[in-house]
Every structure is written in C-alpha cells, then in structure tokens.
Amino acid sequence: MLNQQEKVTPRSELIHRIKQLLKQENAVLVAHYYVAPEIQDLALESGGCVGDSLEMARFGREHPATTVVVAGVRFMGETASILSPEKRILMPSLEATCSLDLGCPADKFADFCAQHPDRTVVVYANTSAAVKAQADWVVTSSVGLDIVASLHANGEKILWAPDRHLGSYIQRETGADMLLWHGDCIVHDEFKGLELEALRRQHPDAKVLVHPEAPESVVQQADVVGSTTRLIKASTELDATHFIVATDQGILHEMRKQAPNKTFLAAPTAGESASCKSCAFCPWMAMNELDKLASALESGLNQITVDPALARAARLPIERMLNFSAQQQRRVRSSGNIENDMELYQHVGAV
Ligand code: 13P
Ligand code: SF4
C-alpha cells in the first residue's frame, strides 16, 4: 500500500506522461518565462529551456530534436518554424497570440511601408511571419536598442513596428529618426506611473525592473530596463533585497528560484480602488496548459506551419538579428574580463 507521499497525483502523472512523450517523439520543450511555473519547470527538467524570445529562437534552432514544442505565443512558434523548416513545431494552443501581432495586420503594414520607401524597416519579433517578411531587420527586446543604435550610426532612418512604447524607448535612448506604428501590449500598457511612485515611496530601497513594452512614465522610474532574461539577471546581481517588477508576473517564478532570499513585488496596474492592483498576466501565455501540452504531443495536432515563400522572406531579417547578437557577444567576450553574462549585457548596454 502506498503511503501519502508515494501517492501519485493526476498532475504528477500528467507531467510524467509528458516527459515520456517528449522522449518518444524526440521532442524538446522550449518555454517562455511568462508561462505557468509547472511548465517552466518541466521544460528545464526535461532538458529543454526557459528563456526570453531570442533565447527560445536560438535554442529551438540549435537543439538536435526533430520536434520542438513551443510553450509561448504564436509568433514564437512561427519563428521556430521559420528557422527550422525541417523540424515539426508543436504548440499547446494555436489560439495563443499577442496583441502586438493582432494589431499589425500585414496588408496595413505594407501600406505603411509603401509610404516610406526611404526608411529601414525594423519590426519587433512579436509579429506575424507575413509582417516579418516585409522587414529589413527583426529585433527582440534584448537586442532592439543595439541594432537600432548601429543603424542610426550608419545614417539610416527607421520605420518601426508595432510596439509604440518599445519604439519610443529606443528612440529616446538612441536619438534615431524613427517613425512608429501605434501598437501596444495589453499587459504592459496597463502599468501605471503614479501608482508605481506611490509603491516606491513605501519601499524606498527597492530596485525597479521594467520591461520596455511598459509606458514611458513607468520606464522612467526603472533602475533596469530590459528583456525578461535581462531583468532576471538584474534581480540576482543587483545589491538590493527588494525589487518592484513591471512585467508579466510569470517571471517571478524564475526570479524567486534564482534569488530565494529576495522580495519581489509586482508593479501596479491599477489604482487604490481597483479590486486587483497588480494583474499583469498575459491571457495568451496562460493558454499553455499541461493537458493541452500532452494532447499536442499525443495527437501531433497543433502543428505550426508557415507558407514556405513567406518563411524564406521572413528568415533573412531574423538571421540578421541572430548574427548581430552572436557577433556582439563574441566581440565583448574577446575584449576580455567578461566574467559572466550580466557583465556582458552591462558592457554592451543591451536592452
Ligand atoms: P522577451 O523577448 O523580453 O522575453 O519579451 C517577449 C514578450 O512577449 C514580452 O511581452
Ligand atoms: Fe504579447 Fe504582451 Fe502577451 Fe508579450 S505579454 S505575448 S507582448 S500580449
């Protein structure tokens, strides 16, 4: 007879089953920091990765598995498929999209580009393959600032889409001439500058970590602005015990794992009278559920496919970004004395 501890719960059975299926299907699980903690843990325990959108793209491409299961949102699955057309890309839910992707339809974006043929087209990774196919460069939040800075240094004028907050942050930091599409992330757009000031007054020693999809009033109060990975690294390396975090709360799982003795507070998305003051959860990331993940592996349904002609066109600007980032890291490492990735990021000033 099994004692209490030995009893297998249905959830742990499901996790066990997914691990078996991953092996059986020669598959690897690649997850984003915003998905449920149990899926993040499963990705790591099964030899996959949890990362920001750039790391997910790299990992999926480089891993020898023939199937990549992307626990994130649709643009991440599409990027994996574009970079590895020979692999099968599955997602727990094909409905998991992103407000930035939805807010930038390919035909309207084509009209915008046609009106400004003299500009270099830079698009955020949170877009469809059809939008990426029209771009000169694709960027994620971890390399966007550096790529635009280098284009600006080259005298190029930029057409940017779709996130207006990230675009205007990069514009302020680099001084580049940028025309911005007016999209936003429904999660980050909700962070409130005034309420953040009030929370900082209650915790004057806390460091403020902000994803650049947040509005300017929030970004201006940040100690560190950066991609999800950059914010996690900052939380371990900065000399503070308290942090206020302005991004999807899924990230707190990894922050608490890496810095268990520190206190993490979610930045406010609403005022005093609201019933939920910190409600930063992406509804599409939440669609990545364990049972859907198991079904995707069992049935082989939920496969992401990208039209081959579109994929070929979209691959070029994505490869440019990956090459830029790889070169940048090589340059910094060879310039010496870079002990760890945090130093590397600070050294290159990456977002
Ligand atoms: P990162 O590339 O920083 O992980 O951001 C992706 C995203 O969708 C943030 O909302
Ligand atoms: Fe898109 Fe925002 Fe969700 Fe990120 S958090 S996937 S930007 S809607």
TrEMBL record:
- State the needed cofactors, names only: [4Fe-4S] cluster
GO cellular-component terms in the record? cytosol
Major location category of this protein: cytoplasm
Q: Where in the cell is it found?
A: Cytoplasm
**Reactions the enzyme catalyzes:** iminosuccinate + dihydroxyacetone phosphate = quinolinate + phosphate + 2 H2O + H(+)
- List GO molecular-function terms, semicolon-separated: 4 iron, 4 sulfur cluster binding; metal ion binding; quinolinate synthetase A activity
Pathway terms, separated by semicolons:
Cofactor biosynthesis; NAD(+) biosynthesis; quinolinate from iminoaspartate: step 1/1
GO BP terms: 'de novo' NAD+ biosynthetic process from L-aspartate
Which EC number(s) are documented for this chain? 2.5.1.72
Task: Output the superkingdom of the source species.
Answer: Bacteria
Alphabetized, the UniProt keywords read: 4Fe-4S, Cytoplasm, Iron, Iron-sulfur, Metal-binding, Pyridine nucleotide biosynthesis, Transferase
**Keyword Transferase included in the entry's annotation:** yes
Question: Under which main EC class is this enzyme filed?
Answer: transferase
**Statement: the UniProt record of this protein carries the keyword Oxidoreductase:** no
Family matches, as PANTHER family: QUINOLINATE SYNTHASE, CHLOROPLASTIC, QUINOLINATE SYNTHETASE A
Role: Catalyzes the condensation of iminoaspartate with dihydroxyacetone phosphate to form quinolinate.
- The molecule here is called Quinolinate synthase
